[in-house]
Write a structure and sequence with these properties.
Blueprint (H helix, E strand, L loop, with lengths): L1 E2 L16 E2 L5 H11 L3 E3 L4 H13 L2 H5 L2 E3 L3 H8 L1 H10 L7 E4 L2 H11 L3 E5 L9 E3 L2 H14 L5 E5 L5 E9 L5 E9 L12 E3 L6 H18 L3 E9 L6 E7 L4 H10 L3 H9 L26 E7 L20 E7 L2 H11 L19 H9 L5 H10 L4 H8 L3 H19 L4 H9 L4 H8 L3 H10 L5 E4 L13 E5 L15 E5 L10 H16 L4 E6 L14 E4 L4 H11 L3 E3 L4 H15 L5 E3 L3
Parallel strand pairs: 1-2, 3-4, 17-20, 18-19, 18-21, 19-20, 21-22
Antiparallel strand pairs: 5-8, 6-7, 6-8, 9-10, 9-12, 10-11, 11-14, 12-13, 14-15, 16-17
Helix pairs in contact: 4-5, 6-7, 12-13, 13-15, 15-16, 17-18
């Protein structure tokens, strides 16, 4: 039985549950369902903060004990140990995982006393909330009063944590999977490009981490496993660390004893079906008993390996609000996100920018020329992270500001700055010298689109497409197989890249092949309803005799990007260039643009123009 009042999401489709209750997820309503249905078990880890808070309240009210309902997966005591700031701090100290100097408070007078003791700035973290809601960084007593008052009102238990601020430290995350027998593994580790200054939901995130050495990686890995075991995690959890770049010092920031945005990202980045495994573990299976349904050759206790780089980029809709504060900090402001897969950071990063559908074709060479700032303005912007911080890094590099200076101002690791420098230098080379095969291949390998290259060389993007095909410069199709090709695996989970020479997969059948375009990232005005449409379209095509149905989409939060929904999943950008690449590789007989919202609709005229020459057809609905 599923409890969720969101009628737009695919999870409330009656195919997914025996009964769907479209009622509020709060203790009063859920108790009435428990009284009526008398369920044996209750799962709290799949409905985000809303479900966790509801479960904790049901336990406090005695409802679970009264009706003999067992919590499956992480128990309420484990949820409290991670969500209550003081209990979390105590638990970490008990298991030998360092934490920052901090103290939980319940009123402003206590907060003021602790802030003066720690010294400003301090960060305020709120108990039992989602996305850093109510929190913030206070640089003085006035800001402290505002944030603490807001945080106490937002907290389920009227509690906030006053903590020393380490905004310049690295922000690293580990996804942990554990079972009832105490077995646990790391599914994925991730690094936040914008450091601890910015909430992970607003951060550009790469997987696996790129700037940790083996000692740092293993140190944090051991701490994550130790912490998850100590608090009693059963199923999945996310552990966030802050790491000092200049020493071995690290601290645990928080744990999420549930599936989150980071879990969805880790699952799609690795090909490890986290939600499925967590559900099975909650019912009593052990990691060694479960077979990975993607690889079909390894068990759930086999840690994934990645032979590619994944880049997650948030989407903000600040443009819809004239007076919006575009600064980024400990409170999440993004409304959606995308995930891009490439063979190097530059490629996956520029792909991610295109996936956002904000009118940019990459970090550089966009339709709207970059604004020119003087050095003082740039230095000021680098110190204050906002939604254009990485564009400001590129501008600073063009102005000749050194990597070391940019790092000092922005707290972005020099490794990422140097990768952005590679993009900036390629932009300059394309603009100033003649385009040849080697230069074109290099540009494609580090993520430049045909439009960007055309803009820099004075050509049309279709001319660039024709030129590179004449040079034999075409993307190859690679698999996300969880195993970095170390073991044989047959998966239908694919991406395109210029960082390779051979395809991992070939289309050999002569069956009718249809591709369905998804809707890309969530945004204001476009959300889970298009995921519902995409999934139901795939089912409808299969039920009406189409032998092979592919999905093209780039949103890690959607069911349409689950590997078992369609025959082939292309985790790719929804641009004309990439859709044409896939159409040519698949030898598609048709494509559906009716269920991907405005994103897919906008591609229809150009796709029709390109495909009519080859007798392909675009299904636009009726």
């Amino acid at each position: 039985m599923l409890v969720n009042p969101n009628i737009a999401t695919i999870q409330t489709d009656t195919r997914f549950a025996d009964k769907v209750y479209s009622i509020p997820v709060n203790p009063q309503y859920v108790e009435s369902i428990i009284e009526s249905e008398r369920p044996d078990g209750l799962m709290l880890g799949f409905g985000g903060q809303t479900a966790l808070n509801c479960g904790v309240k049901l336990e406090e009210m005695g409802v679970l004990k009264k009706y003999g309902v067992r919590v499956l997966g992480t128990q309420v005591s484990g949820i409290r140990a991670t969500e209550d700031r003081q209990l979390f701090k105590d638990a970490m100290i008990e298991c030998g995982v360092p934490v920052l100097k901090s103290k939980t408070v319940y009123n402003f007078e206590q907060a003021k006393e602790i802030a003066n003791e720690l010294g400003y700035p301090v960060i305020i973290r709120v108990a039992y909330t989602l996305g850093g809601k109510g929190g913030g960084v206070a640089h003085n007593e006035i800001e402290l009063h505002e944030i603490v008052t807001r945080g106490l009102n937002a907290s389920l238990v009227g509690q906030v944590l006053i903590e020393e601020y380490v905004g310049h430290w690295k922000q690293i995350e580990y996804e942990v999977m554990a079972d009832y027998d105490g077995n646990n593994v790391i599914i994925c580790n991730m690094e936040n490009v914008l450091s601890m200054r910015v909430h992970t939901g607003d951060n550009v995130v790469v997987a696996p981490s790129q700037t940790l050495d083996n000692h740092e990686y293993q140190m944090l890995r051991s701490a994550a496993l130790r912490a998850a075991k100590h608090v009693g995690i059963v199923g999945e959890c996310n552990v966030q660390f802050a790491l000092d770049a200049d020493s071995d010092k690290y601290v645990a920031i928080e744990m999420n004893p549930r599936l989150s945005r980071s879990s969805a990202l880790a699952s799609k980045a690795t090909g490890y079906p986290i939600a499925y495994m967590a559900a099975k573990i909650g019912m009593g299976y052990t990691l060694s008993e479960l077979v990975n349904r993607i690889t079909k050759t390894t068990t759930a206790c086999f840690e994934p390996s990645l032979d590619y780089i994944v880049c997650k980029h948030p989407r903000w809709d600040f443009g819809k609000f004239e007076m919006a504060n575009r600064s980024l900090g400990p409170t999440m402001k993004s409304v959606g996100e995308v995930m891009a897969v490439g063979r190097c950071f530059e490629e996956s990063f520029q792909k991610a920018i295109r996936m956002l559908e904000i009118g940019n074709d990459g970090l550089v060479a966009n339709r709207t020329p970059d604004k020119v700032y003087d050095i003082e303005d740039l230095e000021d912007k680098l110190q204050k992270s906002d939604d254009r911080i990485l564009y400001h890094v590129a501008a600073a590099l063009r102005q000749g500001i050194s990597v070391a200076k940019i790092y000092k101002l922005s707290a972005i690791d020099p490794w990422f700055i140097e990768k952005i420098q590679n993009i900036v230098e390629t932009e300059k080379s394309l603009k100033e010298t003649k385009l040849d095969s080697d230069k074109l291949r290099h540009a494609k390998e580090i993520g430049f689109s045909d439009k960007q290259i055309g803009r820099l060389t004075g050509k049309d993007d279709m001319d660039i497409r024709k030129m590179r095909k004449e040079f034999g410069i075409v993307p190859v199709v690679k698999r996300i197989d969880t195993l970095a090709a170390e073991w044989p695996a047959q998966t239908n989970y694919l991406y395109l890249t210029y960082g390779g020479k051979t395809n991992d997969f070939e289309v050999s059948s002569t069956n009718e092949k249809i591709a369905v375009l998804g809707a890309g990232p969530y945004r204001i005005g476009s959300s889970v309803e298009f995921d519902w449409g995409t999934v139901n379209m795939v089912w409808g095509l299969k039920e009406n005799g189409v032998k092979e149905v592919s999905v093209i989409n780039c949103n890690p939060e959607t069911v349409s990007t689950d590997y078992d929904i369609c025959d082939r999943l292309y985790f790719e950008e929804l641009t004309l260039e990439r859709v044409l690449d896939i159409a040519e590789f698949e030898k598609l007989t048709g494509i559906v643009t009716a269920v991907g919202g405005q994103t897919a609709n906008n591609l229809t005229p150009e796709a029709c123009k390109a495909w009519n020459q080859d007798n392909w057809h675009v299904v636009r609905g009726h």
